[in-house]
Amino acid sequence: MCRSEWNNRELCCGVLVFVAALGWATAVGAAEPYPEEHRFESKAFYEGLRKRGLTDLLALHLREHPPADAVDALLLARDIKLAQHADPSRSNADRVNALAESNRLLESLIEHNPNGRRTRAWQMELGKSLLYAEADRYTSSILYRGGTAADAVALQGLMERTLAVFGTLSHQFQEEYESLDDLPPAEYDRREGLGEIAKLEQDMALADYLQAWARFYRGISRDADDTERLTDFREVLEYLEDRSHLLASPHSASHHQAQALLLAGMSDRRLGQFTPCRERLGLAIDIVAALPESDNRQKLDWVVTLARIELVRSLSDAGRFDGARQALGLFKRQVESSTPDEFGKMLMVALLERATYREFARRIDGADKHGEADELRVRAVGTLATLARKDAASRDKIYGALYEILSEETEVDSLSPFERSAYLAGALGKADTLAEEIDARLAAGLPTTDSEIIAAEEQRRRVLESAIDVGRALSVSQSDTPGVLRAEARFNLAVAFHRRARRLDAATAFLSVAQHDPEYPKAQDAATFAVQLAWELQEDAVLAGRSEIQELYEHSLRTLTEQFPESESARYWQFFRGQYLAGTDRLEDAADVYARVSPDHERYAEAVYLSSEANAELLKRFAAQNPGNSRAITSRATMAIRAAQDATEQLTRAVAKASSAARRDELHRLAARSKILTAELCVIPRVSRWKRALDTLEGFEGEYPAQSVLIGRVLRTRMIALESLGRVEEASQMIPRYVANDPQGAVPTLQGLFDALREEIERHTNAGRIDQARARAELAVVIAEGIYNVAREQPQLFNVDAVYAVRIQLAEATIESGDHNRAQSLFAECIKEDALRYDDGEPRDIRAIKGSAEARYQLGDYEAALPLFNRVFRGGDQGTRLWWHALLRDLQCRTQLDGDPSGIVKVIQQRRFFDQQMGGADLRRQFDALLETNEKR
Q1: Closest C-alpha among 146, 266, 215, 236 to residue 258
Q2: Residue 857 has what pLDDT?
Q3: Is the overall model pTM greater than 0.70, yes or no?
Q4: 556/559 Cα distance (integer angstroms)
Q5: Cα angle 37-38-40, degrees, rounded to a multiple of 5
Q6: Confidence class of residue 70 from pLDDT cuts 50, 70 and 90?
Q7: In sequence order, what are the residues at sequence separation of 6 or more whose Cβ sits closer than 8 angstroms to the Cβ of residue 62?
Q8: Range 149-152, long-range pairs (CB < 8 A, 24+ positions)
Q9: Helix runs in 626-710, H state only
Q10: Percentage of the chain modeled with pLDDT above 90
Q11: Angle at Cα 247 formed by Cα 246 and Cα 248, nearest 5°?
Q12: Which residues, including other chains, have CB under 8 Å from residue 381's CB and lie 6 or more apart?
């Protein structure tokens, strides 16, 4: 019995290559009333979940309540995977993995049910899915764009599985077909009448045809030096030529002639048979072009596209560059005219153009035509560069596609600037993909020691390091690199540094983009990233002190806020730039920057306050340096006081609008500081608005009960104001109340106040303002007394050395205030206590000895003071102010005790000869007066 002729119309069904994957999932239809009698039927329930896209819920349900039938369980599991594959909301990686898993489930079904009634249908479905759906990403990459080594490896594995499936099917079909000869005529006629024989013949033809495509795909996946590669292509041609109707039967009748000619032509090219290759490809193009629109000509557009690509490649392979260029131009015009907005096709043409021009550049390089070769390599990327300028999305797609090709080429340095830019950007994309894969594995519960995670991390590291190498070279290139590519390279280099956790390098590179390429579209983003990274670095306890970190932060802040002042990020970081400037004591700049903080900034109220605080400090310094310029001090003080009052009002309003208790507390504290600042400005020397200071602080404790940490500043300001108004007794009465109310908190507060007063006393003394120094000293005594009382009454708050230091401090303040008798008594206690520390009973504390000597001197007890001053002089460091003062007092005591005047004169003259300064202007004047006195004697 002869086999019937194949039904060619049926044959072509399902063999269209490079089209979208088959629609596995059931379409969701309109909801209809559900029959009550089937409401809890399992299959209906499963189908309902599938229709509504609730695949994750279905998967969970099946894990907890698996079907009793193993086949049904696997089929349902596969349906879930197919639905996940078809779900556009899932990531590409998830969809690819879901498809692969669905095929593995189908393989498991076939393996465990080799003789089932549905097994052949499963085998055919599996073969098609492997060939068209799972392999599509690799076949498309190789045939349209040249592909990568990874594509080839993956495709070869898939095609081995595919050929095994179709090989088994073909063998089963052949056995069944041969068994037809043994059937009784009646049975044969019956089966023929039911269409079973025709269906068998169609399935046999389809399996053979699909095997031919699978064999071709396996061939293109093999290495060029693999001897089996040519065998695969020859077997494809033998199959097609043995069945001449596949190539010769009109397409209008067979519906497969164009596809068969394409397959034959592609096989011819790989066998080096360029003439028949071009004839068959040209015929395939003509056949499709001649089809009427009613024959769904668009469905065969892939045949024309691939045939034109193969024509260009065949001419290139044959060394016919002019012909290849003409074919390429024709193809390009055809794409531009038919689908001008279809980016995918234009990218495909551009990549083909690059491959063609680079191939001929490689050939003439070997003929020592290096200049022409370089020109061809530049022209090779012309269309790609043009497409990349279209928009950011297009550029990213081009870079991603080009990177897959470039990463296979070892000599990156030989690439054009555009290609190196693509390599750099593509490498970043690859690194991100690897990071996502690592994160997915970690999320799945795999340990960090998992071999695949380690391998992916190592690959990611290599990819980023290669990106950094390329980015560095490209970012400094000047001669042949367009500015936009250089800026892009700098930006992507910064991203690569950041991906490698090299924050300092990343911030520096981002800053370079913002500074040198301000017109680059991402320059503003670069400035923002530079600031953010620099802030992180200067917040790092280990790195914060490094000068380059501080400089980077400063330059980044300045670049962002000055070059992009209207940007949202600049408005945000303006406040922090003010903070940085204030922290580096550039108060004038800080005040100016704070004043430019936008009113809608979350810290606007703080900025107003900090600006006033900076201006206040500037005023204090000006007043200290220019004490005689009363007019300027008064003018500046008026503006500073007004600014501080404005800050208080702003902060008070902000407190009322605060959205949280923590924020209210923060703003309330700043309002308290602002009010204190206003009062402090009023008591600056030459400002002298004493009553206004007191009025400003009236009721402070009641208004700000939680701000006890600020009471020291309040007390100091009040004390200065009261003392200046002649109300010293009121000032002194404030301290005991403060100490009694918070002894532990009072000590550091009072000590800070005391230290500030000592600095004022020293400034007044050095400037000869003795009365002012004495007035401050009286207040200092009151404060020192308060600290001393705490030390006596609550010694648990102090160690022994601290109590001793507090007593010395009180004694020194007392002597400066002019109460020499009490000072002498206090110093005597200190000397006695110090002497007990040593076995010989001799005191050694110079401060105590010097203080006791000074008290005795002021009391006129020169005989007792002299040996003490002499001891300080001999034990002190020569040349220090203390040493000179001890020498002065020694000689003054000798003068008062009628010592030899010539000896005193001689000592003064000798010391003046060696050091004209003599410890400072005030001490030198006293030495001069003493010299004159003794010369007269």
Answers
A1: 266
A2: 93
A3: no
A4: 5
A5: 110
A6: confident
A7: 73, 76, 77, 80
A8: 149/408, 151/221, 152/220, 152/221, 152/222, 152/223
A9: 630-657, 661-682, 690-696, 700-703
A10: 49
A11: 100
A12: 354, 416, 418, 419
